[in-house]
Amino acid sequence: MKHRSKINNTFLSLSAITLVAMLLLTFGIYSPVYCQVYNYSPINYRDIETNPSIVASGSKNNQININHLNTFSSTTPFSYTNIQLSKYFESIFSGLGLTANNTMMKDGIHYNYLGLSAAYRNVLFNKAFIKMGATYKLISTNAPSGSFDYYSFTPDGLNRQKNVTGNLNLSLSVSSPSDKYFVSISSLNNNLLWNKKNNSIQFPRYYVFHLGNLMSLFDGANRGSEISYTAFSTLSLTNNKTVYNQAIDFKFVLNITRNASIRYGSRVEYAENRYVQCIPFITLFKRKSAVTFSYNFCSKENNSQFTPLSIIQLSIIYNL
Amino acid sequence: MKNLLSLTLVTAIVFNSFGQNKEIEINADIKSVTIYNSSAEINYQKEVLLPEGKSTLVFTNLSPFIVENTTTISASEPNVDIITVTEKINYTKERKEQNVKAAYFQDSIAIIKNEMGLLKCKEDALQKEKDILFKDESIGGVSKGVAVSEIEKASVFFSKRYYELTKELFESDVKEKMLMNSLSRYTNQINELSINTLKAISEIQVTVINPSKKNVVFAFKFLTTKGGWAPVYDCKYLGTDSPLKFIFRANVFNASGIPWENVAITLSTANPTSGFNTPSVNSRNNNQSKTTKNEDGVQFQELMVTNAIAEYAIKHKYSIPSDSKPYLIDVESYSINASYNYLLIPNIDPFGFLMAKIPDWNKYNLIPGVTNIYNKGSFMGKTFLNTYAENDTLSLYLGKDKNIQSVRKEMSTNNQQTIIGNYYVDKTVISLSVKNNSPEKLTIQVIDQVPVFSENEKTKFNLQNIDFADYDKKEGTLTWNFALAQNENKTLDYKYEIKAPKNDITDYKMMKKKFRLVTCPSF
């Protein structure tokens, strides 16, 4: 009884924090943060593109992940479709991932890439998995010259042009075999030596840090519930400043049947040391599949004017 | 009128004499016995002077354990018609006791019991007298006085009589104990002889019609379950240059109630008691069953044998008393060519086992049985011989020879404490050393075991330096065959490496080796 009551207390307190954050955003007490290239699809430990080392995790053997975000707004059109395939090769302790992405912004600006991820894992002191991964992205843009800046695309020219470039995401993580506990660092958008720097289209470099699962600090015996911490920094190409972002993800599990459960929670993010962003989600989880629905409270900046921008996300994961 | 009465009387006498059923009691002799594994067919034969007309032959003094509907009878004369054959138990007729020793012991028991009865009577009488005499120990009672002389006389009398009575009671008690002891010994001896105490006998009544008086030989047989046999083999190894001497004997028992005296015996592996069902072909399986039962003091076990039925006619005649005891009879003797080698399984036993390989073994069609192993005249032990060889070559172990020695050393190292690595690696080095201390050159076979992993297992197994050994991946056995001269020593070294992926570290434990069992003779 005591154990259950401790879990309930934790759950109530964390749920309350999430709810308060959502209310604050809803009533505009705090200015909502904008969506950014990597931030509208939250950077998280299990994302193949931002943490390619995850494909070498035995727990993600063969998986297909379809992710779609949309504003469903004619004034601020935005859509994002991402398909990820991953396969783990147990005999060589390596995994491969394939990502196809199509992002459409206002004025028909397109951002597409095809990513190929590879990762290898080894075992440290017979205790932990150490995983190294890389994702090479072949990027095709259809936009005026400019930069895919911190939050959005910032054009510095008028004439639309097609560009093809490429960059590399790297990550290193140490985790428990089931990825319940993890520490991970990533470096995103690294220019390749053989790629000439494309001055007409640029991407900022990101540094990402993940830490999980912090739920064990509250109750190590929780079943599937998680709290993880994510921090990332980037150098803004517009003002040449490094900005920092921190986020905490809460996830709780409600078992429905033996093979099905509902997972719900939220990401609460403190971005640029100025804004609070909240992305609540709910997932129906079955043995081999999961369907996630989330709502992203954010806004788009235009000449220091904030335009409310709500993004709906639908994600389907299926273990092949 | 007087003539008419006389004619009627004569006619009646004549007709009566023709229609009269003459009963002839016959004690037939057992001519031969066919013994099956758990039953016996007893064959009788007797020449009878058969009168003309209808008569009933009563073959008496037969086993009371005749299996129903198994009696068959035939007459030597085809003109003799056998009308009916019936079996019955005769409880009024006491069976002729054949065992003199048993009769002696039974008589002795009767005498002892009689003596003990008389002794009991005597003891009762003495005890009664003692009770009466010494019930009131006050001489002359308590009311009047008694003269001193009378007291003296009475005292002498009581003292003397009390002593006599007590002495006689003591002697009776000693004698009773002696008789009890004798009774116990005789009873035990009777039990040891296992004499069937049934007094009933079977009789077979045969009604026949004979056209003319003549001598007719009747032969009849029936089946009883109170008999059987089990094989016992003696296997004698005389040297590497000599054939193997294989002596087939049988333990025969008779509990039919009638002794088989000086009879011809045939042993058979058939099972006539299984009934009259349509025969069917079953898959051949030679595994011995563990099912056992105990009947008439005889322990039975079920064996799976080949479908082929074998019969062995015993050359000499034997007498088998009806006492349920096993009697050993010689069946056959074989001189079998075999090749010999020494088997060493150092992981189990450091010494060599002499092994004979007998080709064309199945032609002997033997049933499994206990085999006594003799090595150059020395009794080595018993083993259960499974007589059906899958590949027609029987491997027979002939005993342990301490002149053939082996030493097995195993050294394992593992990298469990590594800083980084995807595999747990266990390296094992095996060193086998074999020495021949015997005065002759010998053929040696060494078998050792290595872990067995299937092809689709994630654990990788790498075997190195096995030289000329035959490696059976499925069984995980390494087999070396070589010859070793007198006092020669041979070293066989090999090593293997097991690599197990570290997939689930939370449950990670030291990998356990997997071994298969290797059959080793049990002497």
Helix-strand layout with pairing:
The complex is a heterodimer of chains A (320) and B (523).
Chain A (H helix, E strand, L loop, with lengths): L1 H25 L35 E9 L8 E11 L4 E11 L5 E15 L3 E21 L4 E23 L6 E10 L9 E2 L3 E7 L2 H4 L7 E10 L6 E14 L5 E11 L3 E11 L3 E14 L2 E15 L1
Parallel strand pairs in A: 5-8
Antiparallel strand pairs in A: 1-2, 1-15, 2-3, 3-4, 4-5, 5-6, 6-7, 7-9, 9-10, 10-11, 11-12, 12-13, 13-14, 14-15
Chain B lengths: L1 H18 L2 E6 L1 E7 L4 E11 L2 E10 L9 E4 L5 E10 L9 H34 L14 H46 L7 E10 L3 E11 L2 E11 L6 E11 L5 E9 L23 E4 L2 E4 L9 E3 L4 E3 L6 E10 L2 E7 L3 E10 L10 E7 L2 E8 L8 E21 L8 E14 L5 E8 L10 E5 L5 E3 L4 E8 L4 E13 L22
Parallel strand pairs in B: 1-4, 2-11, 9-19, 17-23
Antiparallel strand pairs in B: 2-3, 3-8, 4-7, 5-8, 6-7, 9-10, 10-16, 11-14, 11-15, 12-13, 17-18, 18-21, 19-20, 21-22, 22-27, 23-26, 24-27, 25-26
Helix pairs in contact in B: 2-3
Structure commentary:
The complex is a heterodimer of chains A (320) and B (523). A 14-stranded antiparallel barrel of chain A has the order 1-2-3-4-5-6-7-9-10-11-12-13-14-15. Chain A has two helices and 15 strands. Chain A has a single domain, classed as Beta Barrel (Porin), CATH 2.40.160. With 320 residues, chain A is mainly β. By secondary structure, chain B is α+β, with helices and mostly antiparallel strands. Among the domains of chain B are: 100-139 and 150-193; 389-507, no CATH class. Chain B has three helices and 27 strands. In chain B, strand 12 (292-295) and strand 13 (298-301) form a beta hairpin. At the A-B interface, strand 4 and strand 5 of A face loops of B.
Entry summary:
Chain A is mainly β and 320 residues long.
List keywords for this structure.
A: 320 residues; mainly beta; Porin; 9% helix; globular; B: alpha+beta; 7-stranded mixed sheet
The two chains with the largest interface, and their residue counts, are: A-B, 17 and 16 residues
Distance between the termini of chain B: 98 Å
Number of strands of chain A: 15
Percentage of helical residues of chain A?
under 10%
Shape of chain B: flat
Q: What is the approximate shape of chain A?
A: globular
How many helices of chain A?
2
- Share of residues in strands of chain B: 35-45%
